Amino acid sequence: MGRRYRPRKKPLYKKPFFYKSLALFIALGALIYLFYFAPFLKIQKIEFKSPKDLEGKFNAYLPLGKNFFLVSTSKIKDKILKVFPEVEKLEIKKIFPNKIIFEVKKREPFGILYFEEKTYFVDGKGFVFEEKEDQVSKPDLVFRTSEIKPILGRPILKEEVFEGIKEIIDFLNKNEIKINEIILEEDKITFVCQNAPKLYFSNDSALLSEGKVLYYFFEKYFKELSPKEYIDFRFSSQENGRIYFK
Questions:
Q1: pLDDT score at 223
Q2: Cβ neighbourhood burial of 243 (10 Å; 0-12, 13-18, 19+)
Q3: Domains of the chain with bracketed CATH
Q4: pLDDT at position 236, please?
Q5: Helix, strand, or coil (residue 108)
Q6: What's the whole-model pTM score?
Q7: Strands, DSSP E only, in the chain?
Q8: Can you give the pLDDT at residue 56?
């Protein structure tokens, strides 16, 4: 019986598949090199649009020299906001191939908060964002507390309560009642006024309703009843649902 003829196999390097695979491997390697090591993709330009007093504070978080595609703007943003509570808003934009723009908005002081021997700035949302080493001369609005410890980077009160306080402040200002200070306690908020009695409110969501009663009381009864020492608007905490004054 004769032997069968078997054609000889071509070497691997002579097959078209080999050259296609090699070309693909080289192209992939070139892309990886371009992605990770290409000089023109390294961050070289950083532009700041921010208040002057913040310039230079973010140097430790600048991604100079890092690959454009590997820079995570969200991680940089989170780190900066945690470290700098005075920053209210931060936008970071990457501009291909090697530029980043920082747009920073700083919190504006709404009032001064005194706690023990320390002084803090509070913004319009009740956010405690800066501790002052020295006393602030002639602050427009003073908050004082001995019971609620301020924490930098956190609000001093619940958002809805602070919004209610702002509405009461606006009302008193429109009625030319000067506020000397606002005392924050765990269960009570006291407005100490220069040309009016002290005003007591709850330190919870009930303050929103109590503020409306304040407006009505001043419109209908304030001049007639002429309270001199205080008006307690915490009717929701009273058994009979009344306000008290003296």
A1: 85
A2: middle
A3: 42-106 (3.10.20.310), 111-245 (3.40.50)
A4: 74
A5: coil
A6: 0.80
A7: 45-49, 87-95, 99-106, 111-115, 118-122, 127-132, 142-145, 154-155, 179-184, 189-193, 198-201, 230-232, 244-245
A8: 84
- The segments of the chain whose pLDDT lies below 50 read none
Residue 42, class by beta-carbon neighbours within 10 Å (0-12 exposed, 13-18 middle, 19+ buried)?
A: middle
Cα–Cα dist 143/156, whole Å = 10
Q: What is the mean pLDDT of the chain?
A: 87
Query: 189 has which bridge partners?
Result: 184, 201
Report pLDDT digits (tens) over 95-105.
999 999 999 99
The two structure tokens encoding residue 94:
């990457």
Q: pLDDT value at position 18?
A: 55
CA angle 21, 24, 29 (to 5 degrees): 125
In this prediction, residue 37 carries a pLDDT of 72
* Residues with Cβ within 8 Å of residue 203, at least 6 apart in sequence: 157, 161, 184, 185, 186, 187, 188, 189
Tokens linked to 45: 């330009």
Q: What is the pLDDT of residue 137?
A: 64
Tokens representing 132 are: 């002052």
SS percent in the chain: helix, strand, coil, step 5: 35, 25, 40
**Phi, psi of 203, deg, nearest 5:** -95, 60
* Euclidean distance between CA atoms 43 and 100, whole angstroms: 7
Name 55's Cβ contacts closer than 8 Å, sequence gap at least 6.
48
Amino acid in position 125: K
